[in-house]
């Protein structure tokens, strides 16, 4: 199958990179997971253009990105509303559509949510590194160039060549899956091994107070501001960290560890957010509020498996 230049980057924006489902089986090497931080929106974007699970899509954070189509392309955009326009006209959100050669797709600024996902029929082409195309800047792995860089002006995104006449029939995302990112995010939470070391007051406040998303948040972790949580453990031997692990450093302000997190850590963990709760948190703008509700590990695992099976 021939490869062609699907897009040329006219303006790079602050954060845009290729992300797939993540890099697994390498954490013993100190290499992080990577992958789409909003797995929910990423999966639906690929589904709309009939791409298989795991296909790389472009994750656009904050907007500011401008791409020129180098040929006719069949696209889908999901996730945040970043004021996308094609030659000045907004494309349909959470839908697939045609973009013609020479047209310019622009993402402006967040209106709702924080991260949009752009998938293309046929899939973006990039060389896997350790089994994944996900770009991780800190580790210099993956992405469109194999070195983890964010998109820069002049970069070209390669697209697998597919006949336009073979594009899939129109698919429609169920309305219930088109999430509202403007309201309070109520996130499921699985209590962890050190939960019993936190004071009763801290546990009560964690589940009964709203927490504010700190501006010091990125793909590594999302900091939360609220009442200081108190834990009886002051020193721990570092242990492995899963996606969504909620560490509580000495200042008592929790940090939710995301896709580009470190692989081990020594702060006590109150518990873990399931993957779909991490997806919702990834769309929370700084200053927005979240709350937590407990869920069993079995329920969280079952919900995640059912979600993934929808796309396989």
UniProtKB/TrEMBL annotation:
What is the protein's given name? Biotin-dependent carboxyltransferase
* A GO MF term: hydrolase activity
Task: Name one matching Pfam family.
Answer: CT_A_B
Ranked from the top, the taxonomy reads: Bacteria, Pseudomonadati, Pseudomonadota, Gammaproteobacteria, Pseudomonadales
Q: Which UniProt keywords apply?
A: ATP-binding, Hydrolase, Nucleotide-binding, Transferase
Where does the Carboxyltransferase domain start and stop, copy by copy?
28-311
